Amino acid sequence: MDQRPVWAPDDVDIETPSAARMYDYFLGGSHNFAADRALAEEYIKVLPDMPQIARAQRRVVHRMIRHLLAAGVTQFLDLGSGIPTAGNVHEIAQVANPRARVVYVDSDAVAVAHSRSILADVPHAAILRADLRDPASVLTDPVVTGLLDFTEPVAVLMIAVLHFVGEQEDPAAVVAAYRDATAPGSYLAVTHATSDYNPELARRAEAVYTRASHQIHYRSRRQILDLLVGYELVEPGLVDMIHWRPEPDTGPDPLGGDVRRYSGYTALGRRP
Ligand SMILES: C[S@@+](CC[C@H](N)C(=O)[O-])C[C@H]1O[C@@H](n2cnc3c(N)ncnc32)[C@H](O)[C@@H]1O
User: Fold this and answer.
1) CA 267 to CA 222: how far, in whole Å?
2) Ligand 1: distance of its center to the CA of 249 in Å?
3) Residue in 185, 219, 180, 226 with CA at minimum distance from that of residue 202
4) Has residue 92 been placed in a domain?
5) Is residue 162 included in any domain, yes or no?
6) Is the CB of 57 under 6 A from ligand 1?
7) 164 within ligand 1 shell (Cβ under 6 A)
8) I need a labelling partner for 6 at 20 to 30 A (CA). Which of 104, 118, 185, 197 fits?
């Protein structure tokens, strides 16, 4: 069993692998425990490209944030924000616009504690511990309402998290609740794991996560599109994540540009 490090909150369950801490491990972070690393390694056996997929996902978020900033968006609600890593949303946004406001939301104790510590001296940014599947609680929490003005456009980010909301939890209704709370000109950014390229592999990947804090649900492109109702998709639409507005001169793709190995779609939708 791991010793509890100083950064781990007292109430954290270090025996149950956590989706947040497993993702931190995929990204090469150090906020994870033996149980997280063991299950993450099992996942990597099924999906050896996962560390590269996680990094590609971070890169596409950065491209989307830059797009949003250029479009004049200054408010961000990052749902399922995870354990902070290099290139957090507020860092990218506030370099471009020091007045940009960012609220992070996560249910994981370590993600919240670490976010709180790095945000202690950061103006216009905060973390809320909440379950994103309860939009009414998130949207009325003073942490959110104190920083974000919902009469102005807000970018809602659901990066690598919507696939943790199962069908029985009505993901379309969850997305719609955030959409309806935001003003015209607001955005939704999504990345989502897909079963399209290799259904058998997706099934095995889902089986690994049955032992984690959150179950993962790989979806087809059609199923993901159905979650984006009410948004006009910014070009090029819902696409393989490496094909969403790639930037020139970033060097060769680490997975040879093979979208089957990434097995993930991304889209940025604008609320008309
Ligand atoms: C795969 S990580 C992605 C983190 C981050 N969005 C990124 O792209 O780096 C998924 C995160 O979503 C969080 N999460 C999953 N379900 C959640 C829920 N219902 N409410 C709040 N957070 C949730 C997990 O705790 C985890 O931190």
Assistant:
1) 13
2) 30
3) 219
4) yes
5) yes
6) yes
7) yes
8) 104
pLDDT over threshold 60, residue 246? yes
Residue 257, phi then psi, degrees to nearest 5: 70, 15
Tokens for 36, please give them: 């997280």
Q: How far is the CA of 149 from the centre of ligand 1 (A)?
A: 23
pLDDT in the model for residue 86: 83
Ligand 1 contacts CB of residue 104 (under 6 A): no
Q: Concatenated DSSP letters for 138-168?
A: HHHSHHHHHH--TTS--EEEEES-GGGS-GG
* Crossing angle (nearest 10°) for helices 50-70 and 89-96: 30
The finding on whether 115 has its CB within 6 A of some atom of ligand 1 is: no
Domain membership of residue 7 (yes or no) is no
Domain of 39, CATH number, reads 3.40.50.150
Q: Ligand 1 pocket, 111 CB below 6 A?
A: yes
pTM, 2 dp: 0.97
pLDDT score at 175: 98
Q: How far apart are CA 28 and CA 242, in angstroms?
A: 20
Q: Using a 6 Å cutoff on CB, does residue 133 contact ligand 1?
A: yes
Q: At which residue do the structure tokens 């049955």 appear? A: 210
Number of folded domains that form the chain: 1
Tokens of 119: 């945000």
Which of 86, 145, 143, 92 has the alpha carbon at shortest distance from 118? 86
Domain extent for 186:
19-243+254-270
pLDDT tens readout for residues 100-152: 999 999 999 999 999 999 999 999 999 999 999 999 999 999 999 999 999 99
User: Does pLDDT of 48 surpass 90?
Assistant: yes
